[in-house]
Amino acid sequence: MTEIIFISTLNGVLYGMLLFLMASGLTVIFSMMGVLNFAHASFYMLGAFFGFEISRRLGFWAGLAIAPLLVGGIGVAVERYGLRRVHRHGHAAELLFTFGLAFVIEELVGMVWGKLPVNYQTPRALDFPAFTAFSIDYPAYKIFELAIAAAIFVALLAAVKRTRIGLIVQAALSHPEMVGMLGHNVDRIFMLVFGVGTALAAVAGVIAGPALVTQSNMAAQLGPILFVVVVVGGLGSLGGAFVASLLIGLVQTFAIASNASLAGAFGHLAAASALRDFFGDIWTITVAQIGPILPYLLLVLILIFRPRGLMGTRET
Amino acid sequence: MSAAGPGVSAAPLGRGSGFFASYGVWIAAIVVLAALPHLFSSGLALTTLCLMGTAIIFALSYNMLLGQTGLLSFGHAVFFGLGGFLTAHMMNVVESHNAPLPLMVFPLVGGAAGLVFGIIFGAVSTRRAGTAFAMITLGVGELVSSSALILRHFFGGEEGVTTDRTDLIHLFGVTFGPQIQVYYLIAAWCLASTAAMYALTQTPFGRICNAVRDNPERARFIGYNTQAVRFLAFSLSGLFAGVAGGLAAINFEIVNSAQMGAAESGTVILMTYIGGVGDFAGPIIGAILVTYLQTVMSGITDAWQLYFGLLFIGMVMFAPEGIAGLLVKQRLLLRSRRLHRVAPYYALALLPGLVALAGVSLVIEMTNQLTVHAADGPDMTFFHVAFKADAPLPWLIAAILLAGGVWLFLRAARLAGDAYDEAAAAARGATT
Amino acid sequence: MTASTPDPALELAGLRKRFGATEIIRGVDLAVRSGERHAVIGPNGAGKSTLFHLISGRYRPSGGAIRLRGKDIAGMAPQLINRRGLSRSFQITNIFPRLSVWENVRCATLWAMGYKYSFWRNIERLADVRQRTEQILTEINLLDRWRTPAGVLTYGEQRALEIGLTIAGNADILLLDEPTAGMSRAETERVVSLIRRVSENRTLLMIEHDMGVVFDLADRISVLVYGEIIASGAPDSIKSNPAVQQAYLGTEAA
Asked: N or C: which end of chain B has fewer CB within 10 A?
């Protein structure tokens, strides 16, 4: 039991940190530009696939260095030539543009790399167990992922809180119009933010690719969860995004590890057969099976009862 | 219409879409719908027509939300799918009890299901507007389509639920076995639903939906609870989506969770937007066009989804008013007989546009050949020209076509835009 | 309330509004008599529009009471206040830009005429709606522009439409927020006579900067400075009130 809790906590935190790598970019973009980048998870996917291709030729570490730069470049181009153009048609048009973009990227990736998972391998240097807890080997690669994510989080925090650009970004998080009126080149800031945000998502892809499955549907799987993180955490709040990422990471990981079900909990009761008939399929459903939909339940509940999110500063 | 004002004549007033207001259009529609299967009688054509019929109802129901009330929903297929599931189940129940209910009324079951779920999910979703609303609909959509694998009894697991449309009571010897009979059923329901949805736009409620879309705050200050308006619009749009789902269930005789999923929700967004959200006819045009492209293009190239996505992005960026919107813009010129002045510019822009399109297509098809069809080798044909996809020359040609075509097209489009503005200003000046 | 003093149509008692630490409305007492034309004047930033937002339901008060014909409406949703017969215009034009002028006004008539959420009646066949819409459009002199999308109207026309939307619902208490802002002499005169006409037998509360308009129209004037009413009464008494002169008018009024 304790080993499950320990491993699940580690995995949950890791998953949460990966989510945060992506959600941080997404929440800054959303808060600043009012655009919910539907294609954000697609940049994560591009990072994974570019990392895969580069690692095949030049090794994993080259992939880690180059892929985010490539994807960030694509992000900058998307903002400059696509999003900026669509901006004048309103928020719905921006949302639809990123929606179409996500669709196109998924088709392109599926065409070039196929629909099956690709063999993105963990680098040899990290392919050993870091420690053995409760007779389960915990891979060093996962510790590496955790370390990278933590390092980036710290760097992001420092950049946002201590640099001038970071100050502007903070201001623009809650009052984007005002920042423009203060004379800052909002266009360039947007481009930078979009580029950095997508590059971060790509980093998450490069390091998550070997551990999770690298496949052309990975964006579609992860995309909605990202939105949940951003909304639950709250607009205008990086801290909220962090808390929400960890929360959802842990909830999903623990849910998947759990075999609890209504039948398990109440099956021994005398009324069990009547309850079973009443609940039908739900009776035997384990928490693990509904694990994937728990984030959406959370999303709907938050949007109903606390639309500001956990730590948001303004309503969507 | 005299200058003295609209009160003088009894004709319908207001926005440009008087097109549907005259009875002539509807009579013509009946005639066309009746004649179509005789003009296009092949099996493939009939199937496509049936698909178009349900798509039209689905897209129109979606535009009740997006175009008319300003609600961008990412989970509309939920009502389509649930309507289908309930229709199929009801058909099976009626068949097993040999109850005398003919097939014609079953889309009503889909409609009722769509309405009930529209009310349930609407109560949750319409508490917020804008991006928050879009995300709630996304979340609800994912919830419902994921629950399909959990509630296996109702949703039939991976295989879905099957039904037999010929097993109901036959009236006048109509079994609904042959596809043409299904076509007429769909066509009739399509006409009725379209008429009903059009009628809705001509009601006080329909106009207030437009007001809420344009300026929700002001709508409150003229006495309206915007949430109540959105809730009602959401519920009614669910009803019609459910009708479309019921017809789809009858057509395919099988319903599965894919019909409630994100892909289906995405498709209806594409259809409606490409057709044009600002005009009642937009979704009709979009549904017909996209269904046609789906059936035709999927036979020509397996990268057809990619072409769709690119078309969609192109429209969002350059023609957000959609095809219907573009046509409406020409109507001003048509009425004042200035269209012939701008038409040459359109032709001028069309040519490089086609060149650019050829370039894009060449790149996509070559990539496709080298990746998806890698096992077949690099030999391929493009418009009857044979070459090797891994040779540098075709890539060079494609790059030139693409770059050159796009550059010229953008220039020509700007000229065409200026010409249009000039002609439109002159046309407006002449009428006031 | 004794039988000899009629209930005020609109009464504010100790009304307060703060945003964060800043108190914008700091205890306003105001009584608007039924049928009178009452102007609210004051320097920029005094809180006049905020006062309107509080009365019409756009903001919730932080304290105090707002009574509409004796009934407390503080914190009520805007549409509920509107249905009780209070209608307001906006300082920054707040119309329906994609709808035609005709449609703008028609939508504003619907609730008051009882059609509410009706989705079963053809709006084009409602003769009473058509009549009322035509009447309003004639009043605001926009009948010949009935087809034009409201977003492309000139500024003056949009301000007229703004007033049209406010009166279309037949409310008997009208709140007009700077109705003549940005208008030429001629346009102002037209709007003033329009306001005079439509406020006949109704109660009018008006924010204005144009002193000519104020002294022309108003039965009583209240002066709002830094969130407080410093004077309230007949135009002559306001003109000669030293506190008002000091705070606002500066030199003699025109």
From this structure: C
Are B298 and B387 contained in the same domain? Answer: no
Full residue range of the structural domain in which residue B398 is found: 336-431
Number of domain units in chain B: 2
Residue B282 forms part of a structural domain: yes
Domain extents in chain A: 2-220
pTM: 0.90
The answer to whether residues B374 and B416 touch, using CB atoms and an 8 Å cutoff, is: no
Compute the distance between CA of residue A57 and CA of residue A62 in angstroms, rounded to an integer: 9
- From the list C67, C43, C38, C45, the residue with the least C-alpha distance to C55 is C67
* Claim to verify: residue B60 and residue B118 sit in the same structural domain: yes
Q: What would the pLDDT profile of B313-362 be if each residue is shown by its tens digit?
A: 999 998 899 999 999 888 888 888 878 888 888 888 888 888 888 888 88
Phi-psi region of A264 (alpha: psi -120 to 50; beta: other; left: phi over 0): alpha
B368–chain A nearest CA distance, Å? 6
A264 at B interface, C-beta within 8 A: no
β-sheet bridge partners, residue C233: C221
B75 and B26 assigned to the same domain:
yes
Residue range B193-206: average pLDDT?
96
Residue B169 and residue B98 in one domain: yes
Binding partners of B (≥3 Cβ pairs within 8 A): A, C
Taking CA–CA distances from B317, the nearest residue in chain A reads: A86
Same domain, B310 and B357: no
Only one residue has tokens 């789902």, namely B245
Considering the domain boundaries, does residue B141 fall inside one? yes
Residue C68: strand pairing partners: C10, C71
Which site among B215, B221, B225, B421 would you substitute to test the C interface, given the most C Cβ atoms closer than 10 Å to its Cβ?
A: B221
Residues of chain B contacting A116 with CB distance shorter than 8 Å: none
Contact list in C for residue B22 (CB cut-off 8 A) is: none
Shared domain check, B397 and B316: no
Decide if B8 is inside a domain.
no
Of residues B231 and A117, more confidently modeled: B231
Question: Tell me, what CATH number does B279's domain have?
Answer: 1.10.3470
The Cα–Cα gap between A52 and A210 comes to 8
Which of residues 226 through 255 in chain A touch B, CB cutoff 8 A?
Answer: 227-228, 231
Nearest CA in chain C to B428: C148
> Which tokens sit at B212?
């809420």
Of B320, B344, B376, the residue that ends a domain is: B320
Task: Give residue B318's identity as a one-letter amino acid code.
Answer: F
The 8-class DSSP code of residue B124 comes to H
Is-contact C82 B220, C-beta < 8 A? yes
Judge if B21 and B141 occupy the same domain: yes
User: How many Cα neighbours within 13 Å face the side chain of A246?
Assistant: 13
Whether the CB-CB separation of B420 and B321 falls below 8 Å is answered with no
Q: Are residues B270 and B341 in the same domain?
A: no
Interface contact flag, B224 C96, Cβ < 8 Å: no
**Is the separation of the CB atoms in B65 and B234 below 8 Å?**
yes
Q: Which of A111, A292, A300 sits opposite B371 (nearest CB)?
A: A111
| Nearest by CB: B135 against A101, A280, A303 | A303
- Is B325 inside a domain boundary? no
ipTM over 0.85: yes
